[in-house]
What does this fold into?
Amino acid sequence: MFRSGIHHVLISWRLPLLVALLALPAVVCAHPELQEQIDLVSIQIETDAGNAGLYLKRGNLHRRHQDWEAAYRDFGRARDLDPDLPDVDWLEGRTLVDAGRYQEGERLLNGYLATVPDNVSALQTRARARSSLGRHLEAASDYGSAIEHAEHPSPGLFDFQARELAAAGPENFPEAAEVVTAGLARFPGEVSLLGLRTDFALAAGEAAIARQQFDRLKPGLETLPQWELRLALTQCLEGKKSAAEQDFLTLYKRVSSEGAPRPGTFSFPPGVLHELAGRATPGHCRQVVIAALGSWNSGTIGFE
It folds into this structure.
């Protein structure tokens, strides 16, 4: 049965240990190391080599371990053993997307979602693939479907759907703002959504709506640089040119002295802040917000 005496000794030593681990209460084995889990399933395969589900399980563990080739081999073996096994397309598609092979991953996910259209995780994974391929409206549609099918949709689903709509062009900003508003109806204090709602209001020149979002912030958050920037932009749209330019100049000096902030937190580079400090007109302020919202890579003014 075993290929060598050494292998036989290793298996005979490990098998009782792994069997004992299986017998422990669930809480003890709730989060073992991935390699430990892989080893456990490998032992199970040694004694049940025709079980396609075990290869599927180990393949998904390899995915989480980012051992892509090992994952592909296990998924292929699972297909060979049981061509009709559920979830092979889903898990292999997810692995391909995680590995950056977006077109191949999307192809498998398309087939899977044609038969299981309500798998929220699969919808999110296909959305990631489509976003990476530059097909932002399709990605937004997938996030919308995930929201529809999720029993308890997370704030992040609304966030990502709105960002994908924005990345597809300014003509989609009104729809994106509606998505954020729907998210805030469920999660009134969610800071990322409040930030996005403010940003879309600024892009539309709606200073009053932007102002309203500050009233919904938890105390203290308004002193963060991204919210100080939003306040300066709001003042700019309100025609408070001197106050806005002073705030832009203060932010410019801070960023210049402290260095670039954490990615995804504060997307305006020092050059733009310096420009706004000398040219805080409503039209110009709107344009820089529109440019920021339209760039998926730099994100929005706010933090994710």
